Amino acid sequence: MGSRVLITGASRGIGAATARLFAREGWDVAINYNRSRDEAMELAAGLSGVSIQADVSDPEQAERLVREAEEALGPLDAVVCNAGVALPQQLLTDTTADQWRRVMSVDLDGVFHTLQAAIPGLVRRKAGAIVTVSSMWGVTGGSCEVPYSAAKAGVIGLTRALAKELGPSHIRVNCVAPGVVDTGMNGHLTRWELAALGEETPLCRIGRPEEIAQAILFLASERASYITGQVLRVDGGMII
Ligand code: NAP
């Protein structure tokens, strides 16, 4: 029997690339989306997977997401908490409380809600892997990205603490912290700005979603069987 994974925010970008890679490696894939229904349905059809609409910032929807994923695929072997949003770059003093809440509710609360729903099944089977998706800004902090940096630092703290909590249940919990990646999240940047970010990077370019997906697959797979509580930076050397 193959392995089964739920990936949140898999309709586009890094999540979609991750879904494609897991499916290519023989996993059954549940593709969560919030708004991009057509993209998610098309992707799921191409991968013989299932697409499930749910806003992970809402605990009831996250609970339904996990339930529907398990009904469709069977018990989950891995959960990838990838769904995220970012704000336009701005000073903390220009950030509204609503903007702060929005980033926190998706990028941090969404991980909490999804895992709270998924963990009981993993613990019952005493097996499984969780991979969270943070950001290099969660590691180092980004000027004019305070809410996003705070949420992503929270994801790292959650990952490390949960790895200790779930280790005795043989469940591994790890995190991938991408650098700048060519997805819709950076769609507001001009070609010139993206090129400049690439030049700042030791590997002289920004990342591709497929490169983040490879790290996520590694951490979810048996190849990482003795790795837990780690943050794997996949950022072309932006933070060394
Ligand atoms: P993206 O292309 O903008 O895709 C974001 C994904 O998250 C979409 O599938 C979107 O679904 C989903 N999503 C957003 N809000 C959601 C919600 N409330 N409930 C469920 N799904 C939701 O972004 P990306 O670049 O692939 O980012 C993926 C992850 O990597 C994020 O956590 C992001 O913070 C992180 N990251 C990205 C970069 C980068 O440079 N791109 C760098 C570091 C970290 P719908 O479209 O269906 O609403």
Task: Kindly describe this structure.
This protein is α/β, with parallel strands linked by helices. It is built from 8 helices and 7 strands; from the N terminus they run βαβαβαβαβααβααβ. The protein has helices spanning 13-24, 37-47, 59-73, 97-125, 136-140, 146-166, 191-200, 209-220; strands spanning 4-7, 28-33, 50-53, 78-81, 128-133, 171-178, 231-234. Strands 3-2-1-4-5-6-7 form a 7-stranded parallel β-sheet, sandwiched between helices. Helix 4 (97-125) links the parallel strand 4 and strand 5. Helix 1 (13-24) packs across helix 8, helix 3 packs parallel to helix 4 (97-125) and helix 4 runs parallel beside helix 6. The site of NADP nicotinamide-adenine-dinucleotide phosphate (NAP) has 31 residues, from helix 1, strand 2 and helix 4.
Question: What are the segments in which pLDDT stays under 50 over at least 5 consecutive residues?
Answer: none
The run of helices and strands is EHEHEHEHEHHEHHE
Compute the number of strand runs. 7
Radius of gyration: 17 Å
Euclidean distance between termini CA atoms: 40 Å
Largest sheet composition: 7 strands, parallel
Structural class by helix and strand composition: alpha/beta
Calculate the mean pLDDT score and round it. 97
Number of helices: 8
Mass-distribution shape: globular
Order of strands side by side in the largest beta sheet?
Answer: 3-2-1-4-5-6-7
Proportion in helices: 40-55%
Question: Ligands in the structure?
Answer: NADP nicotinamide-adenine-dinucleotide phosphate
Strand content: 15-25%
